[in-house]
Design brief:
With about 170 residues, the chain is an alpha+beta fold. Helices cover about 25% and strands about 40% of the residues.
C-alpha cells in the first residue's frame, strides 16, 4: 500500500466510488430493541457488487450538488475510501451520508481518518451533532461506537422510514 492522500473530492470524481470493493465477512447483525443494542449471530459473506452504488449514486450526487462534502482517500489514482457529509439534516445536525473503505485497505486507519475529516468539517460549521444510519453489521456498528456514537432512541423520522433496519446513531460534538 502506498501513502494514502485524503482530500476533498470534486463532485465529478464521485463516479470513482465504483472502484471501492465493499465485500466483507459479517459475523453479527445488530438491532436496536427497547433501547438496547443487541447482536445476533449471522455468518454471511457479502460479495463485491459494483452495482451496489447504483442504489445510492443519485442521492449522493444530489447531496453534493446541494452543499454536501465528500472526502476521498486515494492510493495514487485509486479511490480506496470515501466519506460524504450532508450539512443540513436538522438544525445544527449533520449526517454522515456514506463512509466506505475498500476491502484491501481496511484496518489501516483510513476510515478513522476520513471520519475525522468529516467531524472537523462539521465542527467548523458549529454543528452540535453528527447523525449516521449505520449498516447493522459488526464492522459498521463497532466502528461508530469506537468513535463515540450511540444509538438514538429518537431517530430522524424520514431517515428511519428509508432505513428501518439500520442502527440510527448520534454523536454530540
Amino acid at each position: 500500500m502506498n501513502l494514502i492522500e485524503i482530500r476533498l473530492l470534486n463532485p465529478d470524481e464521485l463516479e470513482k466510488i465504483y472502484q471501492i470493493d465493499r465485500s466483507e465477512e459479517v459475523e453479527h447483525r445488530y438491532r436496536y430493541i427497547d433501547g438496547e443494542l443487541k447482536a445476533f449471530e449471522e455468518n454471511v459473506s457479502v460479495p463485491h457488487d459494483p452495482n451496489y452504488c447504483d442504489t445510492y449514486y443519485d442521492t449522493w450526487r444530489d447531496a453534493l450538488e446541494s452543499g454536501a462534502e465528500a472526502f476521498g482517500a486515494f492510493d495514487e489514482e485509486q479511490l480506496s475510501g470515501i466519506v460524504i457529509l450532508y450539512p443540513n439534516l436538522e438544525p445544527e445536525t449533520e449526517q454522515l451520508l456514506a463512509l466506505y473503505v475498500d476491502s484491501n485497505h481496511r484496518m489501516s486507519g483510513i476510515a478513522k481518518s476520513l471520519y475525522l475529516k468529516a467531524e472537523d468539517a462539521a465542527k467548523s460549521r458549529k454543528s452540535k451533532t453528527l447523525y449516521v444510519c449505520a449498516t447493522p453489521t459488526d464492522s459498521s456498528v463497532n466502528f461508530y461506537l469506537s468513535q463515540g456514537f450511540e444509538p438514538t432512541a429518537t431517530p430522524n423520522t424520514g431517515l428511519f422510514e428509508k432505513h428501518p433496519e439500520d442502527i440510527h446513531m448520534t454523536k454530540n460534538l
